[in-house]
Amino acid sequence: MSAIGCQEFLSRLDDWMEGKRPADTQAHWRECSRCRSVAGDFEAIREAARATAVLDAEPSPHVWPALRAQLEQEGLIHDRRERRAAGWRERLGAAFGIHPRPVLAGAYLTALVAVGVALVLPTGRQSSENPWMAHTRTATEPLQAHLASAAHDTISSLQSSDPVVAASLHQNLAIVDNYIALCEKSVSEEPDNEVARDYLYDAYHQKAALVAQMMERGEYGP
Amino acid sequence: MISYNCSPARSSWKAAALLAPGLMLLGATAASADRMERRFKVEAHPVITIHNPNGAITVRAWTKSEVLVAATRATSVVEVFAEQTGNRVDVYTHQVSGAATPQELRADYEINVPEDAELEIHDDSGGVNVSNVLGDMNVETIAADVALQDAAGYLTIKTVGGSFQCLRCAGRIEVSSISGNFRLIDLRTYNVRAQTSTGNILFDGAFLPNASYRLKNYSGVIEVRFSPGDSFDLSATSLRGKVHNEANLTPPSHHHILPRFGNALFGTFNSGRAKVDLSSFDGTINILKRD
Questions:
Q1: CA angle, A142 as apex, A137 and A146 as ends, to 5°?
Q2: How many Cα atoms sit within 13 Å of A128 on the Cβ side?
């Protein structure tokens, strides 16, 4: 049996992604399918980022800590210091033995957006508009496909028995999709418009958060 | 039927049902609403978590060092739990049987808490109403509206389609939604971050010195009201929409890079002690004199 638990493993994810893998962390990774899955998701994100990156073969070293901070901020993973204020899902999950896979899927989606968009946002260097657009499309098209696929799967499995909730989720997903389409149009028309790009990023982020929320609904029901 | 699991240690409702069926069955019928109350002694700064998929949640502060949970459920299709772990009280609703209408799944809560309590509330549909609680608060809903009065602390509110109203709130507010409208009235907050996609945002509160107010939407109207004695630095940008301003702004003294896109307005009102940042994609921004 490994000497560390899931929380400790998750707290070491940054090191894990950087290749720092002491024996006790590896032991936990071998024994815990859930943590193995989380690490696998993060590996997949990195691979997706590599595949879509044109200018940067490797995400900035700041990406992983930033991702972690983002996921913690959104409550998708928890810092040990925040255990006292642990959320209801975690407690219900522990109480009922529910495997929190949707939470991981949500983390994956959010991280995918964070990495995908982090790679295409301007990094301070000057570039001409056409390469920027090409780069943006290269990075955002797979992202869009991932989100669309996740949304499609989620809608078909949504178990909400409350029509008000289901209608709200569907209606707001449509709003965000429309929002993305309009922002993409704006960015396409004015590629160097930072405000439009900022709104596009917001829209992707919002869709990922919403789909993650719908995934949780689909898994747990009301 | 109302069920409470009050053991200090965490335990599942399934185990409780097997071990103490008498406690789980409190004589209600499946077709009628029933009500139960439960009290918990707490110390300073207790944490109260409430998870209720469908129904109204009303939380009020009182002066007692205890938490009173009063639950009314529509039918026995749902069970209501309240349990204490240390200085935390967890309240949640659980669906017992599979097929049920939303009306059958409804549970309403009235909860009294010490005013320094921290709250974590999840309510998909129904409504959340919190009064006079001064501790930090995290509220998440899907369709449920959220209304806070005289709250303080660090307030984090997320809705999908529910509206948000905050009356006489203080502290710090972060609120986000996709289609919810926000009404921020008589606030005394030093930090406000409000973002909605298609909702309207109304801010009618004090601009505190050194405070920061950032309101953002995609479409809809952002309306900010000011008094002659207010003091703020204003930045208002609508990429595709309009900006209407009634404030007599002093142009920025330093060199300001004006955006090349959209309609933008920058300037200082009086001595510019607060920072106000308004942005919209294709919505209208109104900066209006307070009546």
A1: 140
A2: 2
* Chain A residue nearest residue B97, CA to CA: A222
Q: Which chain A residues are within 8 Å of B282, Cβ to Cβ?
A: 182
Task: Domain count for chain A, please give it.
Answer: 1
Provide Rg for chain A, Cα atoms: 19
For CA atoms A27, A33, A39, A40, the dihedral sign is positive
Judge whether A1 lies within some domain.
Answer: no
CA B239, distance to chain mean position in Å, is 29
Locate the chain B residue with the closest alpha carbon to A210: B160
For residue A163, which residues of chain B lie inside 8 Å, CB to CB?
Answer: 102
B12 touches chain A (CB under 8 A): yes
pLDDT by residue for chain A (222 residues), tens only, comes to: 667 887 788 778 778 887 888 888 888 888 887 778 777 777 766 666 665 544 444 455 555 566 666 655 555 555 444 443 344 344 434 433 333 444 445 555 666 666 555 545 554 444 445 555 565 665 566 666 767 777 766 666 565 567 888 889 889 999 999 988 898 888 888 887 888 888 888 888 888 888 887 777 664 444
Q: Would you give the end-to-end CA distance of chain A in angstroms? A: 36
Say what the ipTM of the complex is. Answer: 0.81
Which residue in B10, B47, B179 is closest to A94 by CB distance? B10
B5 inside 8 A of chain A by CB? no
